[in-house]
Amino acid sequence: MSQSLGTSVPAEAAGGRISLFDAVSERNRTLNKKSLVHRLVYVGRLSERATEKRDLGAYFEKLCKQCQHQFSGEGASGILQIYSSYYVHLVESSGEILHAIIDDLESTESKDSGLTKQSKILNFASDVSTYFIIY
User: How many CB atoms lie within 10 A of CB 66?
Assistant: First the structure.
């Protein structure tokens, strides 16, 4: 389906070919995959339990893999920067996975048993793929 001035017209009817984007979008629709990508940026303090900084990276990697198995759709990607006593984490994924990450942060910090503490959300952006469209 190609879009022209807000109308949805099949590409064949418009005299054109089907684009790769249209083909992938249609396949994702038939497979019930979500195409919206959301971005979450949050910071926090490393707890005293985080003696080895690699443990924090391994923990977030394990959490993202668990969420990918639990929720259908695209995988998660992001950047984790770890400093001496703080960390910054940017994650792009579906809304369900990001909400699961937020819930996990809340539950581990409330129990005071996690590798992080005093986490704060800096930004939660919905449907970031539309931000990159050039008109």
Answer: 13
Rounded to an integer, the average pLDDT of 88-109 is: 89
Burial of 30 per CB tally in 10 Å (0-12, 13-18, 19+): exposed
Dihedral (CA of 14, 18, 20, 26) sign: positive
Query: Which pLDDT tens digit goes with each residue over 67-88?
Result: 888 877 667 889 999 998 999 9
Alpha carbon distance 38, 68 (integer Å): 15
Can you tell me whether residue 103 is helix, strand or coil?
helix
Label residue 70 exposed, middle or buried (CB < 10 Å: 0-12, 13-18, 19+).
exposed
Q: What is the pTM of this model?
A: 0.68
